[in-house]
Write a structure and sequence with these properties.
Structural class: alpha/beta
Largest sheet: 7 strands, mixed
Distance between the termini: 27 Å
Low-confidence stretches: none
Strand order of the largest sheet: 1-9-8-5-4-2-3
Bound molecules: pyridoxal-5'-phosphate
Shape: globular
Number of strands: 13
Strand content: 5-15%
Oligomer: single chain
Length: 397
């Protein structure tokens, strides 16, 4: 999936323009920046591409989640519902705000199961945060319904799914707030970076101020700016934004390549008995960054994953055993291992959740293998890869 594979002249040109002025900061220095505002320009272009009025760039996807949750008013003792299959950043962002991450089961979309979300809502819940893992989305209409019913905000983590759509809308733009990561291995990259998008001007103002120490960005003198509320430094630099500007311009080119490669591999695997693809909710269109499929049971999935590796197929993941993306091995979260006290309420809640039954998630993840889609493959390489994958899976299923 990574845009870094096709890093080239456009990226170099944008970065060079920043180096030429020497203004690496996104705010201020108007006199010497020669009219170059890479972060502001990227925000404008991202908002247009995502069909929303507002985009706020930040320093990472993790920062984007933190800023989005802060804008949603999440704070001490509030609960945020998130899936068992995600990235550790999801619960890190919640805990950073003094709130409680509530893990909830996934279904065959590999994202939040709406029925499980409904059952997990309490009077402390503030946000439902679906995570569109591996390029495909949650059943957003069902989640929105639950949010409206209970007065909650829907925050989409679209860090792994930029360019996908749901009901014709870009992923990230369906909920109240949407988050992207532009780290080095995402579909488009800034090196490190992230963004929050939204339609509501008040949420935008909060994101703008909060991500820059609470600055209200009025006037031309940073030292004289007001601070309507406290914030942090989640700023992106002009250098990172410059790379992102070039990469955003290439997003549709990258998506087209991903879709083509995904289609070829899917056709090869679709003929194999016992292989079933992940469910994409109705009206959803993936961004094709991964091809994820189920085997009939855990034993067969383990065998298939081993067979793919033995056949020299790189980039295939068995998330069930993965420490970054699946709840099973998050001992540090379950035991509240933190450098500093998290507070009695949060610690007690993590303790209470530590033995919860996630067998519904386990039965899907235990059967799942995901293979990433690279941009740099030639047609010949994809065809050969598809044939080799099919061969390995046939033998192992
Ligand atoms: C689903 C998801 N959310 C959030 C993040 C955090 O993004 P970043 O690495 O830019 O902090 C990642 C990064 O891998 C991710 O995969």
């Amino acid at each position: 999936m990574p845009g870094f594979e096709l890093f080239g002249d456009k990226e170099r040109r944008e970065v060079q323009q920043v180096l030429d002025t020497g203004v690496l900061m996104r705010y201020g220095f108007d006199g010497i920046r020669e009219g170059r505002w890479k972060a502001a320009e990227l925000e404008k272009q991202l908002a247009v591409r995502m069909q929303v009025p507002y985009a706020q760039l930040v320093s990472s996807g993790t920062a984007a989640l933190t800023v989005a949750l802060a804008c949603a008013g999440v704070g001490a003792g509030d609960e945020v519902i998130l899936p068992t299959f995600t990235f550790v950043a999801s619960f890190e962002a919640v805990l950073a705000l003094g709130a409680i991450p509530v893990l909830v089961d996934i279904d065959d979309t590999l994202t939040l199961a709406p029925a499980a979300v409904k059952a997990a809502v309490t009077d402390k819940t503030k946000v439902v945060m679906p995570v569109h893992m591996c390029g495909s989305m949650a059943d957003l209409a069902a989640l929105k319904y639950i949010c409206v019913e209970h007065g909650l905000l829907l925050v989409e983590d679209a860090c792994q799914a930029i360019g996908g759509t749901y009901q014709g809308k870009p992923l990230g733009s369906y909920g109240d707030l949407g988050c992207f990561s532009f780290d080095y291995v995402k579909t488009i990259t800034c090196g490190e970076g992230g963004a929050v998008i939204m339609r509501d001007v008040n949420l935008y103002r909060k994101a703008d101020h909060y991500s820059d120490h609470g600055h209200d960005h009025r006037g031309k003198d940073r030292g004289a700016e007001g601070h309507p509320f406290m914030g942090y430094n989640f700023r992106i630099s002009e250098l990172h934004a410059a790379v992102g500007l070039a990469q955003l311009g290439r997003l549709d080119e990258f998506l087209k390549i991903q879709e083509k490669h995904y289609g070829i591999l899917r056709q090869c695997l679709g003929r194999i008995q016992g292989v079933r693809f992940r469910r994409v909710p109705e009206t959803g269109v993936e961004n094709y960054s991964f091809l994820s499929f189920f085997l009939e049971d855990e034993a067969r999935a383990r065998k298939a994953h081993k067979a793919l590796s033995a056949a020299g197929i790189d980039g295939c993941f068995y998330w069930f055993d993965n420490n970054w993306h699946y709840h099973r091995h998050w001992e540090h979260l379950k035991r509240a291992h933190s450098l500093s006290p998290l507070g009695k309420t949060v610690e007690a809640s993590l303790q209470n959740q530590s033995d919860r039954d996630f067998s519904a998630s386990d039965q899907w993840m235990g059967r799942t293998v995901s293979c990433l889609i690279k941009l740099g493959w030639t047609d010949k390489e994809v065809a050969a890869r598809g044939a080799a994958m099919a061969e390995a899976l046939k033998k192992s299923t």
